[in-house]
User: Fold this.
Amino acid sequence: MSISENIHSIKQHLPLQVKLVAVSKTKPADAILEAYNAGQRVFGENKAQEMATKQAVLPRDIDWHFIGHLQSNKVKYIAPFVSMIHSVDSLKLLVEIDRMALKNSRVVKCLLQFYIASEETKFGLSLDEAVDILFSEEYAKLHNIEICGVMGMASYSQNQELIREEFLTLKKKFEFLKERFFAETPSFCEISMGMSDDYLLAIDCGSTMVRIGSTIFGRRN
Ligand SMILES: *Cc1c(COP(=O)(O)O)cnc(C)c1O
Assistant:
């Protein structure tokens, strides 16, 4: 199947309120353009320089979402255009995103990435760490970032019950933060969870954004 057929068939399974982030990491600009021509506007990348290189040659109305681990010293490459950063996992990173967004006269939307998998290798915050950030004086001073929700990655596993539990854990963290810190903030509404192998389960558990790569673009090398 072609990229455009893949997108259309995924879209048929997405409820209206669930956004599709087409994960185009490692794929060339012409593959992204094919998806764009099929109507897709939101693309996800996990390397700052790669994203900036693609952004420079692709249509201006693409929404670029950063989904990978982001080092503070790389924020400058994407700050002029990035629409959402899904992978905020420290106050230090949030401060740097704010500083670079201000420099570019922008507000950058962010998600707090949580550690939900039983594996050791995944990045992300614990709920306590997120609460510490949101109570901090430094956070209160940031005006060029907007925290719009949470993101998480389930374990790399065939065990559907395990994955379901991890997704529901993320949903619970979202609800806790919503009630505690964002009750008056309608834009805090996103739960980014679900990839090619588990997006239907993620939607079942309350996902509002799925990040799908290989099912659209084919396997990566
Ligand atoms: C690569 C990646 C995806 C997409 O993975 P697929 O299995 O190809 O759909 C989603 N989220 C993150 C954070 C990724 O790095």
Observations:
- The mean pLDDT is 96.
- The first helix runs from residue 3 to 13.
- The first strand starts at residue 19 and ends at 23.
- The chain has ten helices and eight strands.
